[in-house]
TrEMBL record:
Gene: nth
PANTHER family: A/G-SPECIFIC ADENINE GLYCOSYLASE/ENDONUCLEASE III, ENDONUCLEASE III
GO molecular function: 4 iron, 4 sulfur cluster binding; class I DNA-(apurinic or apyrimidinic site) endonuclease activity; DNA binding; DNA N-glycosylase activity; metal ion binding
GO biological process: base-excision repair, AP site formation
Cross-referenced SMART domains: ENDO3c (SM00478), FES (SM00525)
Residues in HhH-GPD domain copies: 38-185
Note on how the cofactor is bound: Binds 1 [4Fe-4S] cluster.
Protein name: Endonuclease III
Top enzyme class: lyase
């Protein structure tokens, strides 16, 4: 895909959603971190269901640590990987208290030192909380970038690097959210909704015609 077409796509996504927001519900930086940790292999809708109850009881690292692994697990048992997520959350809270005075580190190295926090999670926190022009690549972004040929890559990291090299700085702050929302609600995995897609005339998806008709 050429530079002009990419720019047009980003303009259309921007005009369609001027101020995109993450669909995870949170009221603090800490709550966002926990919600993102819980979202691995789980939908945001499901995460929001469990955090609605969890955050009413605990919403600080100190309170979460007092709740303990079993207590956390009791609230999140309906979502995938609840055992390992409960342990990671408690260990993360312990590190936040012991090493960072209960405050989220504002750099990649610090965030990725927390149990369960990988590059994607760190990118989301850096972008949403600290306004870094990072572009996290999840399954929705990865699918969209390859299907539309917006940024081709065989791995999540290769797509991320490609995006950072081809997305103009003016769009980098919101690019992740635009692509996630578009991939989740329009450019869906099994049945892309090309008929209502705002960029269907620019997308280079070879099979889009059969989803438009």
């Amino acid at each position: 895909m050429n530079r002009v077409k990419r720019y047009q796509i980003l303009c259309k996504l921007r005009d369609n959603n001027i101020r995109p927001v993450i669909e995870l519900v949170y009221r603090s930086e800490f709550e966002l971190l926990i919600a993102v940790l819980l979202s691995a292999q789980t939908s945001d809708v499901q995460v929001n269901k469990v955090t609605t109850s969890l955050f009413k009881v605990v919403n600080t690292p100190q309170d979460m640590l007092r709740l303990g692994v079993d207590g956390v697990k009791n609230y999140i048992k309906s979502i995938g990987l609840s055992n390992i997520k409960s342990k990671n959350i408690i260990e993360t809270c312990r590190l936040l208290i012991d090493k960072y005075n209960g405050i989220l580190p504002s750099n990649r190295v610090g965030l990725e030192s927390l149990p369960g926090v990988g590059r994607k999670t760190a990118n989301i926190i850096l972008n949403v909380v600290f306004d870094w022009p990072t572009i996290a690549v999840d399954t929705h972004v990865f699918r969209f970038c390859n299907r539309s040929r917006f940024a081709l890559g065989n791995t999540v990291l290769s797509v991320e690097k490609k995006l950072l090299s081809v997305v103009p700085k003016e769009f980098q702050r919101n690019c992740h959210q635009w692509l996630v929302l578009h991939g989740r609600h329009v450019c869906r995995a099994r049945q892309p909704n090309c008929r209502v897609c705002v960029i269907k005339d620019l997308c280079e998806f070879k099979e889009k015609k059969r989803f438009i008709l």
